[in-house]
Design a protein that fits this description.
The complex is a heterodimer of chains A (555) and B (258). Chain A has 25 helices and five strands. By secondary structure, chain A is mostly helical. Chain B is α+β, with helices and mostly antiparallel strands and 258 residues long. Chain B folds into two domains: 212 residues, Methyl-coenzyme M reductase, gamma subunit (Lambda Exonuclease, Chain A), CATH 3.90.320; 32 residues. The two termini of chain B are 22 Å apart. Classes of the chains: A mainly alpha (555), B alpha+beta (258). Chains A and B meet through helix 17, helix 18, helix 19, helix 20 and helix 22 of A and helix 6 and helix 9 of B.
Chain lengths: 555, 258
């Protein structure tokens, strides 16, 4: 990127009438909420609903003091795309692709097949061959969505409602993979660039993992903990069918135990009681797992900045919008805290600036060992650059009208740059914290109360290994004590991890099984291009799964 | 042992020096305007001028306080002594050369005033205190050089505006339009109290400070004013704090002698 070209200028020109450098504008003349097509639409719906149900609903005139829209209600450009939308389109309730991303994560159950095969072979004396595995997979593709395989007179699910439900397997063994029916195979060789495939196959080895996708309808109706149980139930039944077992013999319990517990890759751990969520919910998903779910690294492995930005958008939606914005709060949610990292190409500009700086001053990506001098140099430079853009371009400052938005983007730029230079995400997060402290002194302001709290003590825990704090950065998440507080951090933290490993040309960041499990063209959400997919959701061009059209009246 | 002398703030640029000055309680803030006590009470909107202070408990003299060494050390403020309720004043400071920034404002409250409860956000700083104590503090906050009628706002809710561009008169955006620029007088008039309730009559808070003067008084770094990049001492200080915290977090023994 040319240092003279700012990536965000085009978006700023579309957002505001005045030039991005202009310091003055006009207020109070835009017709308040009526300037927004979306809010006019909301009002029309609201009037109809109020008439139908006899209870009033949405009315922006009820806003304390003055209705929304006393300033220009600006459009948002989905970074890295040509898509423009309104802020409302980025609230996850209004965006079907955001919902689908979370459903696709929650409904994914990865579990090993090796324990079950061992039970079959060693305990029951059954033969397990590629043919029997293919037979089992065909049965499970019938059973997993809710089809009966053993019982008589069963209620079953309508396939049209659960058509997004299926099972596939993957292995690091090319010979075995060749014998698996390609309809059921996540083919590592086909889905990943050769060097990434080599790394992944080496680590998976001869083990076989099944990737079950539960129905989105189940994800919508039940909780995260449901998924492994649902999968285990149908896996056990399918084993009985495929291997002609007695329904209820003791060994069958082993399949259920393996599928529910022993062989399950727990993507989301339990949260503490005070946050009160079960397993497999966003609060328990480590940052590094989210980075691995993002598949951008398969598409442009030579552009780790782009990969980091794509993964940041996923982190923003998963952690900031779903977890903090809804599980932990709700209502208007934290849309704009989160969307600042994936709109208007502002963070893109900061990150590519940092990447260029690393190439120029530190010999390229992953070329330097983490050191205090490097963290200090890179994080300071990128932070100052980011802060100066807000000051040079008042439109940029107005686009990120909240301090938490600016703090997230400036520190993300710094952290990503340190990660790229060192290939070390823990060094990257330390760069993030230096950035936050510099930002606070530079502007004399940072984020909201709780936002700052995390960052003012972050330096001290970035390399801490004390039992209540010490965790390699990849394994931290919103379940980590100091990160459970507030919004606007974890999105960028996912990118810091992504950049560290992207800079080293790693095939995965934290868990290779998760990386492979999401390399699947049958997923409804496009994990290779999350920002584009969110943009399609904003434009109402994304078709989600789990629609109930076939069981509800025509409407 | 030599007497401890607080330095208040590092740095050698104008914003750093201004921060140091504002944080130092020995520095007397320069008075720039006069707002009557009653008008200030009206803008804050907690009570009608002349109305008695509402209390949440009887005067301390009547309560028979328990024996407590802390109570013996700390002299109650007049508001606490009288049992006043706790009320607030909240300021929003524009990024465009407002005299103080949220953190400077908060630090300053802590070094200058007793019995205050302060919060800091990027776009507002709530200050809570016993009502009569609050009114005394608020007077200084509005009448002196740390307030500018165009770039500072007294706002209880919907504080949005600190990062927005300025209007044609150089005023910071306020969704409620609590204040208006009076073209006849060149002054800024409050027409609503801090929570947005219309006032019976406009209250002037004076003329905006000229831009050149604001730039001299500001404690904000800006690349189009005094760039943070130029304040090496401040940057080095911050980097050092970060380094010490980082190393101590890993192993407190390792920071000895650094």
């Amino acid at each position: 990127m040319s240092k003279e070209k700012r990536m965000f200028l085009e978006a700023l020109r579309r957002k505001f009438k005045e030039a991005p450098e202009e310091k003055y504008t006009k207020f109070y003349i835009y017709g308040a909420w009526r300037q927004s097509k979306r809010k006019r639409e909301f009002m029309e719906y609201s009037k109809k609903i109020a008439k139908q149900r006899g209870i009033p609903m949405y009315n922006p005139e009820l806003h304390l003091g003055a209705p929304l829209g006393q300033r220009v209600l600006m459009a948002y450009r989905m970074s890295g795309t040509d898509i423009y939308c309104e802020a409302d389109d980025l609230h996850f309730i209004n965006n079907a692709s955001m919902q689908q991303m979370w459903h696709d994560i929650r409904r994914t159950v990865i579990s090993g097949l090796d324990a079950a095969h061992t039970v079959l072979q060693k305990r029951l004396g059954k033969e397990v061959t590629p043919e029997t595995v293919n037979g089992y997979l065909e049965i499970l593709n019938h059973a997993l969505p809710g089809g009966a395989v053993v019982q008589e007179h069963m209620a079953e699910t309508n396939p049209e409602l659960v058509k997004d439900c299926y099972v596939k397997v993957f292995t690091g063994d090319d010979e075995l993979a060749d014998e698996i029916d390609p309809r059921f195979l996540i083919d590592i060789n086909k889905m990943f660039p050769a060097d990434q495939a080599k790394q992944l196959k080496e680590v998976v080895g001869k083990r076989v993992y099944q990737v079950c996708r539960m129905p989105t309808a189940t994800s919508m109706s039940c909780d995260g903990g449901t998924m492994a149980r649902w999968a285990a139930m149908q896996i056990s039944m399918s084993m009985i069918d495929a291997y002609k077992l007695m329904a209820g013999e003791a060994a069958v319990g082993e399949f259920a135990f393996a599928a529910k517990h022993a062989e399950v890759i727990e993507m989301g751990t339990l949260t503490p009681w005070r946050r009160a969520r079960g397993p497999n919910e966003p609060g328990g998903i480590p940052l590094g797992y989210c980075a691995d779910m993002c598949q951008a690294s398969r598409v442009k492995p030579n552009d780790p900045v782009w990969v980091a930005l794509e993964s940041i958008s996923m982190g923003a939606v998963l952690y900031d919008q779903f977890w903090f914005g809804s599980y932990m709060s709700g209502g208007v949610g934290f849309t704009q805290y989160a969307s600042c990292t994936y709109t208007d190409d502002i963070l893109d500009d900061f990150c590519y600036y940092g990447a260029d700086y690393v190439k120029e001053k530190h010999g390229g990506f992953g070329k330097s060992k983490p050191s205090w001098d490097l963290i200090k140099d890179v994080a300071t430079e990128v932070s100052l650059y980011g802060l100066e853009q807000y000051e040079k371009y008042p439109a940029c400052m107005e686009a990120h009208f909240g301090g938490s938005q600016r703090a997230a983007c400036v520190a993300a730029g710094a952290g990503v740059a340190v990660s790229l230079a060192t290939g070390n995400a823990t060094a990257g997060i330390n760069g993030w914290y230096l950035s936050q402290l510099l930002h606070k002194e530079e502007m004399g302001r940072l984020g909201f109360y709780g936002y700052d709290q995390q960052d003012q003590c972050g330096s001290a825990n970035s390399f801490s290994w004390r039992s209540d704090e010490g965790l390699p950065f990849n394994l931290r998440g919103v379940n980590y004590p100091n990160y459970a507080l507030n919004v606007g951090h974890q999105s960028a933290h996912v990118g810091i991890i992504s950049a560290a490993h992207g800079g080293r040309a790693d095939a995965w960041t934290t868990n290779p099984l998760i990386k492979i499990a999401f390399a699947d063209k049958n997923l409804v959400f496009d994990f290779t291009h999350p920002r584009l997919c969110f943009g399609k959701g904003a434009l109402r061009e994304f078709m989600p799964a789990g629609e109930r059209t076939v069981i509800i009246p025509t409407h | 042992m030599p007497e401890y002398k607080p330095q208040y703030y590092p740095g050698n640029t104008l914003p750093s020096q201004n921060r140091k000055k504002y944080l130092d309680p020995k520095y007397k803030l320069q008075k720039l305007r006069t707002i009557s006590d009653d008008d200030l009470v009206r803008i804050m909107g907690h009570r009608v001028p002349g109305e008695a202070y509402k209390s949440t408990h009887p005067p301390l003299e009547e309560t028979g306080e328990p024996a407590c060494p802390i109570r013996e050390i700390v002299t109650p403020t007049p508001g606490a002594k009288a049992g006043d309720r706790i009320r607030y004043i909240q300021f929003t400071d524009s990024v465009y050369f407002a005299p103080v920034t949220p953190y400077v404002r908060a630090w300053m409250y802590h070094t200058r005033y007793r019995g205050v409860d302060v919060g800091v956000l990027s776009g507002r700083v709530p200050l809570e205190a016993r009502e009569r104590d609050l009114e005394k503090v608020a007077k200084e906050l509005v009448e002196t050089e740390i307030f500018d009628s165009a770039r500072c706002g007294i706002r209880g809710a919907t504080v949005h505006g600190h990062a927005l561009r300025l209007d044609e008169n150089g005023l910071m955006f306020d969704a409620y339009r609590r204040y208006l620029f009076n073209k006849k007088t060149g002054e800024v008039d409050y027409v609503k109290d801090q929570i947005g309730v219309p006032l019976d009559k406009p209250i002037s808070v004076g003329k905006p400070i000229p831009e050149t003067d604001l730039r001299k008084r500001t404690s904000e770094f800006r690349v189009d004013g005094n760039a943070f990049r130029d304040d090496k001492e401040l940057i080095n200080w911050m980097q050092r704090i970060h380094m010490l915290r980082t190393i101590a977090g890993f192993d407190p023994e390792k920071v000895k002698g650094i």
